[in-house]
Amino acid sequence: MRHPARFTGVAVALAVVAAACSSPDDSAATDDGGGQAATVASCGRKLSFDEPPQRAVTLDQSSTETLLALGLADRMAGTSNLKTKVAGKYADAYGEVPVLSPKILTGERLREAAPDVVVSSFTDLFTKDQVGTREELGELGLPSYVSAVDCPQHHDPGKTPFDLLFDDYENLGRIFGAEKRAEQLAAEQRAAVEQATETAEKVTEKPTVVWLYSVYKGLPYVAGESGMPSEMSRLVGAQNAFDDVDEDWPEVSWEAIAEKDPDVIVVGDLSERGAPGDSAEEKLDMIRKDPLTSKLTAVTENRIIEVPGIEMDPSVRTVNTLRLLTKGLKDLGYVS
To answer: Where does the signal sequence lie (predicted)?
Structure first.
């Protein structure tokens, strides 16, 4: 769910940003031995860097944690848009980075941070009424990187969401001169994906799964065909129940969920975000009180798997939910 933030004076504001970016003398050492030039493609735009950026600003929690996982806390001029607590393994590093805004960043706050690159997991965070469009930022000399997962049309159509996520690690590693750390992170997560595919071979029957992300104004948002949960379902030998909807997170009805009659319901917990219906407990309470969903076998037999909601979106933490899904299906008897 996106919440608009007011943006004012993008052209004037970011002209100041471009002028304030760090100089070549500020270049920090990289894990591969010093500054280096890099060129990568990002969501239809070519980004070139004469040296690794020193003042990155992230527009969402997933991109923040990706840079922290790559050991780049000392290159971050600010973070924003925190949905939940940062993963424990990144907490100390996160404490060293300025929090520009707990919610969606504005152009004014971006200007004050004087970044030399902006990183985001989502294209829709670059709008005129937020930090500005990518075109506006580019005209002012400020490059913007968007996750490959949010722009699959610019990549090999045979790549999975996890492949695109690993492309992000590679691209960001090249941009920041952290290739070795990026390779290690990708290798660790590829191993987790391969382990999940081994589970698919042991699935005794192909269960259907509804992924319940959030509830807004009483209506549930579930995983559609184009989101990461659909890929996680496929990897473990299950079927996302709403694969017939070509959206990441379509709004549906409780009746639609009841009609799907899923074998398993995966419930995302976003309790720390604090909005009504965000916690797993609240979602489960709604499911059990609804006259239709309360009668589903998945509900009466408690075929419920709880996962951190933020891990349903592509991020360095998604493989954890892949493991939780695998374990949950084993515990429920779907894996031999």
So the answer is: 1-28
